Amino acid sequence: MAKKPTKKSRSFESKLGRFAKGVAKASVKKAAAKGRAAAKPKTAARAKPRAAASRAKAAAASRRAHKPRQQPETLRCKALTVALTADDVEKSLRFWVDGVGFHVKQRWEKDGKLLGAELVAGACMIGVSQDDWAKGRNRTKGVGLSVYAESTQGVDALAERLRARGVDFAGPDTTEWGWRQVSLTDPDGFRFIVYEEKKR
């Protein structure tokens, strides 16, 4: 016949039960901590694909921002002509024609007085006109403007012609992006650069 549990034994069993529950809770907490620690590398691993996806999205947005020309083009031009205003149109023409080598395509005159001219060199065109002084005689010209023209003959030959004609110029120089160029400035401060792309 089983012995009836005494008050003392019941108290011991109660304490044992509480101890077992405490151990169980500690085990659960420990397991949870391990689970969180194990999950961290996975989170970092997941972060890499997200970062790559973000970079890909940014690259796609950049491509959209620099998309090719739409067809048909919004604006279509055949040529670009530069119009320059000169303090002394005769002096300016001597520079561009006798010095640089442009040709006079058309002269603009009124009452026998030269007002300007249209100059050409190959496919390039420059208009030069006499200042009418409507904006004052002391205004500065040529600031912040550089005119570029690509040469099909080579800038070294151009440098020799400019030197022979007594025209001040800089170069020939080779730029970091592969152009070989000559730079000169007209009597009114307009900067003119003739370049050729470096052969590869």
Strand content: 25-35%
- The name CATH uses for the topology of the largest domain is 2,3-Dihydroxybiphenyl 1,2-Dioxygenase, domain 1
Query: What is the radius of gyration?
Result: 41 Å
CATH H level of the largest domain: which superfamily?
2,3-Dihydroxybiphenyl 1,2-Dioxygenase, domain 1
- Distance from N terminus to C terminus (CA atoms, Å) equals 109 Å
Give the strand line-up of the largest sheet.
1-4-3-2
Q: Which structural class fits the helix and strand makeup? A: alpha/beta
Number of strands: 8
Helical fraction equals: 40-55%
Mean pLDDT: 77
Please trace the helix and strand order, writing H or E for each element: HEHEEEEHEEE
Helical region count? 3
**CATH level-two architecture of the largest domain:** Roll
Low-confidence stretches: none
What features would you highlight for this structure?
27% strand, 4-stranded mixed sheet, 8 strands, alpha/beta, 2,3-Dihydroxybiphenyl 1,2-Dioxygenase, domain 1, 200 residues
Question: Mind sketching the topology for me?
Answer:
Blueprint: H1 7-65, E1 81-86, H2 89-100, E2 103-110, E3 113-121, E4 124-130, E5 146-150, H3 155-164, E6 170-174, E7 179-185, E8 191-197
Parallel strand pairs: 1-4, 5-8
Antiparallel strand pairs: 2-3, 3-4, 6-7, 7-8
